[in-house]
Specification:
single chain, 726 residues, alpha/beta, Spore Coat Polysaccharide Biosynthesis Protein SpsA, Chain A, Rossmann fold, D-amino Acid Aminotransferase, Chain A, domain 1, 3 domains, ten-stranded mixed beta sheet, six-stranded mixed beta sheet
């Protein structure tokens, strides 16, 4: 019986955690799953931790103690995993504890489903003076549809956006050892869990996320590594380690956009965490690392929010200037709220979440008691354990709390008026980084456009823009922005007004049926719409919401959709992503169209047309799959081209569409008279439908893997010498 293989090996790494180790061990030894082993790996504690572990080991032969000669979390974890005998391996950080039925519940599901790993939800908590705790429930997955089923993270890449931790689950021992999954053995506790997490998510064939919480994650240990303000570059070393792993396993090209985005999020976390005197130095390292990623085509704008993207480009371009603007802004905010017992953050969007993150690791603790929103409907109950309330429910804090207005600046006046009516006294405004740049562009005269456009192009690509003698495709797109703007382009980019022009040229049988057009979201009668439809705003690209089933409350939350639509309607798309002057003056409206066979993004064929002639066809597949879009390029005879623009090619070549010849003729009729235009058409197998047109695809900054192809496409845009001089 004693030689039987344990079901789970529980690893507990420790170093000087005398205040917490007993609670941690108690939760391990009292598991309802008795057939376990507990491997304690201590890195030479001097505060009595070792003695506590030894006392428990003397009374429980399931406990094994290993003393590491290195103070390295990664080294400790690798030592323990090397000797772990259990079918599955679990991890408890030594200042945390787990519920007593955790490993029995996880092991049962893991065995029933043959899982490589299983993760569950968890609690974060802090202790009170009376011994009780404040705890907050955290969902590890984004939506309920990702819970309680087997998935392969590499195919369901949204899983890479789930909360990153290594301890709220168990891992199959043979999966870990068979794939040589190791922790990075850098000194101390230096974010080595990031690399382990990345390896398991990349290599797992069968993963599972459980919508129950068992793990208790402490957030008030002053000796936790996240509070070590001197560890400046450990996060950089960890992401170098992850990059090497991805390259070794031929996964970097597939995961480059995810890798760069997750790297950005953790670099940003590190920037907030480290001491003030190291921030500029670290920003310079960020600038160098992300400049390489940008120049290698590893950044995807679509994964970032607009403000996030502006922040990243600013760091790449001029880290010192960013430091002086953003970091000093944070310091000034902290100075303003110092002395207030309570702080309320008004706004739970990207700005509000950023402010919460920045206030988490300041020298003097800031008591953020809640988020405030104008309307509680459609908002979650909490974010990262901080509750969310309607502002009308917080008037009892009107005098004792500082209220930080953390929204886009266009709403500041309205919010200030509301707060003053409710008698809030201590109002502090926060600017959204990147917003001022958009306002700056809008105030420019036409004479300033070439200089500003050149600067934006350099920040986005790292390349010098030659407007006097443009050669590449992207350079000529920039030239066309400045010199080929006309009313017809605006008409065609307007998703409502374009319908008449298209019908006149090719007939209205090619139009997607129109379900309605509205000036305001509140004018939409959803009862009259079918169960599935697409909502679009008429004045910009990618302002689309695909509704597969309006009766599915999780998929279609009317209040959150309203917020998104109204936010889009307020945007001037001319300066939303670089200079796209052809969008100037388009009236923002909302239209609804039916879904096209529920595969609207898969059956879309994009014809690149030059001087009135279609030349190439772009096919994007897996566009609905998060960070996994594939792009293939064909000539008009459906010969597959060896080139890549931004995205890698599909694993298998897309089939030729049924109506290729008809679509080519339609594209030819629609592109007449334009130096460059992209005509997007649907092939539903039954018929062809017009989708939309584009003139500045990717705003003229998409990455070409082969520069020769960029120049080849550029040569097809015919700009006369006389026009250049003009």
């Amino acid at each position: 019986m004693e030689n039987r293989r344990p079901k789970v090996s529980i690893i507990i790494p420790s170093l000087n955690v005398i205040s917490y180790i007993a609670e941690c061990l108690e939760s391990a030894i009292n598991q309802t799953l008795k057939d376990i082993e507990i491997i304690c790996v201590d890195a030479g504690s001097t505060d009595g931790t070792l003695e506590v572990i030894n006392s428990y080991a003397a009374n429980d032969n399931r406990i094994k103690l290993i003393v590491s000669e290195k103070k390295s979390y990664g080294y400790q974890m690798n030592m323990a995993m090397d000797v772990a005998a259990g079918e599955y391996i679990g991890i408890i950080e030594s200042d945390d504890y787990v519920k007593l039925d955790m490993y029995e519940a996880l092991y049962k599901i893991a065995k029933e489903n043959g899982l490589d790993f299983i993760k569950s939800d968890f609690y974060r908590f802090t202790s009170k003076e009376d011994g009780s705790i404040n705890s907050a429930y955290h969902n590890i997955a984004w939506q309920s549809k990702y819970y309680n089923k087997v998935i392969k993270p590499l195919e369901e890449r949204i899983a890479f956006r789930f909360i990153m931790n290594t301890w709220s689950g168990i891992y199959r021992n043979e999966f870990i050892k068979g794939n040589s999954i190791r922790h990075n053995e850098t000194p101390g506790a230096s974010f080595q869990d990031n690399g382990f997490w990345f390896q398991t998510f990349t290599l797992a064939e069968r993963a599972y996320f459980l919508d129950k919480a068992y793990y208790m994650n402490r957030r008030d240990n002053p000796n936790s590594s996240v509070f070590s303000k001197e560890k400046v570059y450990c996060i950089c070393e960890e992401y170098d380690y992850i990059r090497s792993f991805l390259q070794k396993n031929n996964c970097l090209d597939k995961l480059k956009f995810l890798f760069s985005y997750i790297c950005y999020q953790n670099y940003k976390f590190n920037l907030n965490r480290i001491a003030e005197e190291y921030k500029l130095e670290f920003l310079e390292k960020c600038s160098a690392d992300f400049r390489k990623m940008r120049d290698n085509g590893e950044l995807d704008y679509s994964l970032f929010g607009k403000a996030e993207w502006e922040i990243l480009l600013s760091i790449i371009d001029n880290p010192k200037e960013y430091y002086e603007k953003a970091i000093v802004q944070k310091r000034e905010l902290i100075e303003k709220i110092t002395g207030y017992k309570n702080v309320i953050i008004y706004g739970v969007g990207m700005v509000g979440k950023r402010i919460l993150s920045e206030l988490t690791y300041v020298a003097k603790p800031v008591n953020v008691i809640c988020f405030a929103v104008s309307d509680k409907k459609g908002n979650p109950e909490e974010f990262k354990g901080v509750p969310i309330y309607g502002i009308n429910d917080l008037t009892h804090h009107a005098e004792d709390a500082a209220i930080v207005v953390a929204t886009t600046e266009q709403y500041h006046n309205e919010i200030i008026s509301t707060l003053e009516k409710l008698n809030f006294k201590n109002i502090i405004l926060v600017s959204e980084f990147g917003q001022n740049e958009e306002y700056h562009y809008a105030a420019l005269s036409m004479e300033d456009y070439p200089k500003e456009l050149s600067q934006w192009y350099y920040k986005s690509t790292g390349l010098i823009l030659n407007l006097e003698n443009p050669k590449s495709f992207n350079e000529k797109i920039q030239w066309l922005k400045l010199n080929d703007d006309n009313a017809l382009k605006r008409e065609l980019l307007d998703k409502y007004e374009s319908r008449k022009w298209v019908a006149d040229r090719i007939g209205d049988k090619y139009l997607v049926p129109l379900l309605g057009v509205w000036d305001k979201f509140n004018d939409i009668d959803f009862e009259k719409l079918p169960d599935s439809f697409v909502l679009k705003t008429t004045h910009g690209r990618e302002f689309n919401i695909f509704v597969a089933d309006k009766n599915d409350i999780e998929e279609f939350d009317k209040y959150s959709v309203k917020r998104r639509i109204e936010e889009w309607l307020s945007k001037d798309y001319v300066f939303y992503f670089g200079f796209q002057t052809e969008y100037r003056g388009i009236k923002p409206r909302i239209i609804a169209e039916p879904m096209i066979g529920n595969k609207v993004k898969e059956d879309n064929y994009k014809f690149l047309c030059f001087n009135g002639e279609p030349k190439y066809i772009i096919v994007d597949t897996k566009k609905d799959a998060y960070a996994d879009c594939r792009r293939d390029i064909f000539d008009l005879d459906w010969r597959h081209q060896p080139y890549e623009i931004k995205y890698p090619k599909a694993d298998s070549i897309p089939d030729q569409p049924v109506h290729l010849e008809e679509m080519t003729e339609i594209a030819k009729k629609l592109c007449e008279g334009f130096k460059f235009i992209r005509i997007d058409l649907f092939d539903t197998k039954e018929k062809v439908l017009f989708n939309e047109v584009k003139f500045s695809i990717g705003s003229g900054v998409e990455y070409f893997k082969q520069m020769s192809f960029a120049n080849q496409l550029g040569s097809l845009i015919n700009i006369k010498a006389s026009e250049m001089k003009g």
